[in-house]
Design goal:
Layout lengths: L1 H26 L3 H5 L8 H9 L7 H6 L9 E5 L5 H13 L2 E4 L1 E2 L7 H13 L6 E2 L10 E7 L7 H9 L6 E8 L7 H8 L4 E2 L3 E4 L7 H10 L5
Parallel strand pairs: 1-2, 1-5, 5-6, 6-7, 6-8
Antiparallel strand pairs: 3-4
């Protein structure tokens, strides 16, 4: 009987020790693990899931030392497009010539309202304005051929194109103009660019009507053949 009591007492002490040990472990757990089920909190696991959604996270040191691969293209498509028509033609030229591409984006955006843009374009012409361009073309010297596109506004290039030609010296390069319009064609823009870039070789230009601009591949191909720049 005495031996049975001793065994029961030992078991009681053992269970008591185990309970104390378990309480100590819970008290020592990290704050993040205690908060993981709290509304509005973000656990470490949730943070890792967010990182995984955009691929492996990179350190700031890796990002700082990243160098983009330099292009080997010798031609560049530069374009300004308000309605999207000129953009369609620009991208067709890019595909068919394997060119780099740069969109002329105004530092101050034009209105989405047609009448407002018409009025502003006329005002810019009267004032011989030079609207600022957002962004800059680096290493312009690497290009031999520059395709330049625009919509015909009031019988001329938009004034932001004059900003482009004032900014870059295209001497020794081939310049090929293309434009879109309802029917006014290139107007006098080819001769105008010849005067702005007297040391460049300015080719015959391409005009595509607004109705054909969404599918310009055939006309672009024929034009590139005509001016000797087809791939």
């Amino acid at each position: 009987m005495k031996k049975l009591i001793e065994i029961l007492t030992a078991l009681a002490l053992l269970f008591s020790f185990a309970a104390c040990s378990n309480n100590t472990t819970n008290e020592g757990s990290s704050p993040a693990s205690q908060q993981s089920n709290t509304p509005g909190s973000t656990s470490a696991e949730e943070s890792n899931i967010q990182n995984d959604s955009s691929g492996p996270a990179e350190s700031s040191e890796q990002n700082a030392s990243f160098t983009p691969t330099e292009t080997e293209s010798k031609s560049l498509v530069v374009y300004f497009s308000w309605s999207g028509n000129t953009e369609h033609v620009a991208k067709s030229i890019q595909r068919q010539t394997d060119s780099d591409i740069f969109e002329i984006v105004p530092a101050t955006s034009y209105s989405d309202d047609y009448d407002s843009v018409v009025d502003l374009a006329q005002k810019e012409q009267r004032n011989n304005a030079r609207p600022a361009i957002s962004g800059r073309i680096e290493r312009m010297e690497q290009y031999d051929v520059i395709y330049v596109g625009f919509p015909n506004w009031w019988g001329d290039m938009p004034m932001i194109l004059y900003t482009f030609f004032d900014t870059y010296d295209l001497s020794g390069k081939t310049v090929a103009l293309f434009c879109t319009s309802g029917g006014s064609g290139l107007s006098n823009t080819v001769n105008e660019v010849k005067s702005l870039e007297p040391n460049a070789a300015v080719t015959e230009g391409l005009h595509i009507g607004s109705g054909s601009s969404s599918n310009p591949d055939k006309e672009v191909s024929e034009w590139l053949n005509d001016i000797g720049l087809a791939k």
